Automatic annotation (TrEMBL):
Provenance organism: Salinimicrobium catena
Protein's gene: panB
The protein's name: 3-methyl-2-oxobutanoate hydroxymethyltransferase
Family statement: Belongs to the PanB family.
Known catalytic reactions: (6R)-5,10-methylene-5,6,7,8-tetrahydrofolate + 3-methyl-2-oxobutanoate + H2O = 2-dehydropantoate + (6S)-5,6,7,8-tetrahydrofolate
Keywords attached to this entry: Cytoplasm, Magnesium, Metal-binding, Methyltransferase, Pantothenate biosynthesis, Transferase
CDD domains per the UniProt record, alphabetical: KPHMT-like
UniProt remark on cofactor binding: Binds 1 Mg(2+) ion per subunit.
Compartmental location: Cytoplasm
EC nos: 2.1.2.11
Complexes and interactors: Homodecamer; pentamer of dimers.
Binding site for Mg(2+): 52, 91, 123
Gene Ontology molecular function terms on file: 3-methyl-2-oxobutanoate hydroxymethyltransferase activity; magnesium ion binding; methyltransferase activity
Cofactors named for this entry: Mg(2+)
Task performed by this protein: Catalyzes the reversible reaction in which hydroxymethyl group from 5,10-methylenetetrahydrofolate is transferred onto alpha-ketoisovalerate to form ketopantoate.
Amino acid sequence: MSVAKKQYKRVTTKSLVEMKSQGEKIAMLTAYDYTMAKIVDGAGIDVILVGDSASNVMAGHETTLPITLDQMIYHAASVIRAVHRALVVVDLPFGSYQSDPKEALRSAIRIMKESGGHAVKLEGGKEIKDSVKRILHAGIPVMGHLGLTPQSIYKFGTYTVRAKEEAEAAKLKADALMLEKAGCFALVLEKVPAKLAQEVAESLTIPVIGIGAGNGVDGQVLVTHDMIGMTHEFNPRFLRRYLDLYTEMTSAFEKYRDDVKSRDFPSDEEQY
């Protein structure tokens, strides 16, 4: 039985604000390719994030930093071709927006024009305020991202929970309000205390989507490959695994190998 309060043929930035005002939680997952995006979209997920986590999940890098703008556009275009309902948000990768608002706008325009994405996501608060405003003034929707910001991993030196101290919590609240006032349509809070995340969500009119931020926010996002168990080394507290595809797929591949070696595959019925 669906828990959705309204059936959206197309989820838009306006839809997400409506969901928040109506008390309906927002479901968000990642996708980086056509096949996965088609399944995620068909399941009724509201927002698909083409995350720079593709750097880890798809390319095997240790951090999100190496992925390029061209690579993000490739992944986003693949996802867009599969999607009929969900809002598709594309991460601006490290180095494409931090230093120069004009460069940020050029990067966002490339994503929108070359991939067909619906919105972009940027990490950071007041440090990137000018970049956010420049992109918004061009009519491109922006989703903010505060708390743990993986693109800044070498600055923080750790993936532990952010904003546990009063000063950092106060800055996060101020940055969240600034992003809303600037015109962001939504905000991701990553790995922050649940109480703080709820306070931020209640203080804003735009939706706050959490990952490791408790249940007091307006929605949740997970990396799809993590929640279906295709990855198995990553086990943070906030991750719920809905499948164990790593084990299932390994078993299937081993069975295929054995069937080929034993000449069981292909059978007479599987030949021309």
